[in-house]
Amino acid sequence: MNVKKLRPKKYLRYLYPPNLFGTQRTKEILSVNPTAAPQREEATSISVSVFDYDLAGMDEKKFSDVTGCFPYKNSGRISWINIDGLRKTDVEQVCNHFEIHPLMAEDILGQNQRPKMDDAENHLFCLLNMLYYNNESRTVEQEQISIILGKDYVISFQEDATRDVFNPLREKLRISNSRIRQRGADYLCYTMLDLIVDNYFLVMEQLGNQVELLEEEVVRSSNTITLGHINQLRKELIVLKRNIPPVRELINGFVRSDSEMLEDRTTKYFKDVYDHIVQANDLTENYRDIMINMHDLYINNVNLKLNEVMKVMAIVTCLLAPATVIGGIFGMNFDSIPWLHSPFGFFIAVGVMLLIPVWMLWIFRRRGWF
């Protein structure tokens, strides 16, 4: 029998109010200062993978030092050089050998940068983020990737060596006579951007599932925990909003570029990626509108519950008012009060106290007040 493992930390963290609203996550999302010097922690080790191919064959190599990829600058075939792990000296060596502009090297080493595309000195440079969805923490994680398109080669720099979205590309490169093996480096660059953009939809699909579950939670029970979930999900949408719209401008830069490294027949493929990123941007706006409506629904539900409570309290107050008045009248210190000395006076007073609220309940019910 499978027993689901309990995770106390997942629930105990809600005992501390700031954890409920993810204040630490807010700090991570908003801690962006483009004017500050980057404080990137350099990788302890790097991994360099090279795919050197043409229609006739393909060589796949791995190196632990960036100098291993230097011969592929003019190999006579198409080369994809992927460097996992960023170190200042390694990035500078690669940029110097492949004659890449120093500003591009500075952008590669930068952090929390806005996705962008540059055209300088026989190279096309683009920087954007790959997005992943963490099911454990229910957050959107991002990894910066820099792609440099040169003559017959593409160089990519990644921060994390344990994951990326390029496995389908690697499988296609290993297949002889595949379309990518028949095309140039610009088509390779297009394929990489297309995979990154397609992965955005997978992340948004995960967030869409969370939005659907949260909507049911808001309708079912609107409490402080629900408000915390709404707040956390809106923060993850901020991550999407920060990354997806600028990629639209990046892809548009490739479409409008007059660089000699881009063939005319490849432009239509970049237009297809542009259509995808426009759709992703529209979905992000839709999610944002849904979250705003969900927040309004939460407020309306809280107000509705408050109105229900106030209505019950008002009815109870109205029902007790006759008994209070009658009790106050018969409690006055006068001898001339009717039925004061009658043996049935007490029972008459109590009966009136009960009959009047029953009559009031009948009136309220008939008017549809509850």
Assembly classification: single chain
Cα end-to-end separation = 50 Å
Parts with pLDDT < 50 across at least 5 consecutive residues = 1-8
What structural class do the secondary elements suggest? alpha+beta
Total number of β-strand segments? Answer: 7
CATH superfamily heading of the largest domain: CorA soluble domain-like
**Domain unit count:** 2
Give the ordered list of helices and strands: HHHEEEHHEEEEHHHHHH
Fraction of residues in helix: 55-70%
Q: How many DSSP H or I helices? A: 11
What's the CATH topology name of the largest domain?
Beta Polymerase, domain 2
Strand residue content = 5-15%
Question: What would the average pLDDT be, to the nearest integer?
Answer: 85
Report on this structure.
The protein is of the alpha+beta class. The chain has 2 domains: 42-301, Beta Polymerase, domain 2, CATH 3.30.460; 312-366, Methane Monooxygenase Hydroxylase, Chain G, domain 1, CATH 1.20.58. 55% of the residues lie in helices and 15% in strands. It is built from 11 helices and 7 strands. The chain has helices at residues 8-12, 17-20, 23-30, 88-97, 102-109, 167-173, 179-182, 185-220, 224-256, 264-330, 345-366, and strands at 47-53, 58-63, 78-84, 116-120, 123-134, 139-150, 153-158. The protein has a 7-stranded mixed sheet with strand order 2-1-3-7-6-5-4, with helices on both faces. α8 (185-220) runs parallel beside α10 (264-330).
